[in-house]
Amino acid sequence: MIVTIPRGTELSFPACCCCCLAPTFNTRTVGYSSTATGMGYRETITASIKVPFCEECTRHDEGMRRKVVIIPMCLWGILSIASFPFFDLFFSSSDFSGNAQVVYMILSGCTIAAVIAVVTLVLYKTTIMSNWRKNNPGHSSPTGNCKLLGLDGIEFASDKYGQMFIEANPGRVRAAR
Fold first, then answer.
1. pLDDT tens string 61-105
2. DSSP 36-85
3. Do the beta carbons of residue 26 and residue 54 sit within 8 Å?
4. What is the Cα–Cα distance from 115 to 61, expressed in whole angstroms?
């Protein structure tokens, strides 16, 4: 659920975790940063808020953020190495010699690596991440339970928490359309 917030509004958060909705008074900083450049200037806009997160969900969220990067990269590496024997099935290097053969091998390797990267990400999304909710009941999202959207919006993975947040800030915030 996306909630819009007028700039300069003081916010109140429900005293429960924005992920699992368990009671908590622990918070975690959620931030936003954007840089705009133009003719002779550079402007950076940053914002942050403290959002309630229980200790268990903080550990779980940080662990999932690492897995989202590490697992696909490991799969990509393994599949890339496993594809080396198949280079000549897709590309024939007999037409090249000397430096042209080196360039050919680099380009064919990059092409196969790119295809493998796409296949790896698709497999990761369709298998591991699709089974995530089933294996983690009570959590609203594998990552990104709360995201600051610029200076005037917050996105909550849990619609229920988003509604509780709106109720905790009557007349100050509203659900985005």
1. 666 666 666 666 777 677 667 766 666 555 555 655 666 666 666
2. EEETTEEEEEEEEEEEE--HHHHHHHHHHHHHHHHHHHHHHHHHHHHHGG
3. yes
4. 29
Check if the beta carbon of residue 11 is closer than 8 Å to that of residue 173: yes
Rounded CA-CA distance 52/104 in Å is 54
Helix (H, G, I), strand (E, B) or coil at 61: helix
Supply 146's token pair. Answer: 């709360």
Amino acid at 64: M
Report field, pTM of the whole predicted structure over 0.90? no
- Could you report the per-residue pLDDT of 26-46, keeping only the tens digit for each? 888 888 888 888 888 888 888
What is the identity of the amino acid at 76?
Answer: W
Mean pLDDT over each residue of the chain, to the nearest integer: 76
10 Å CB burial of residue 6 (0-12, 13-18, 19+) is: exposed
Structure tokens at 89: 């099935």
**Helical spans, DSSP H, in 24-54:** none
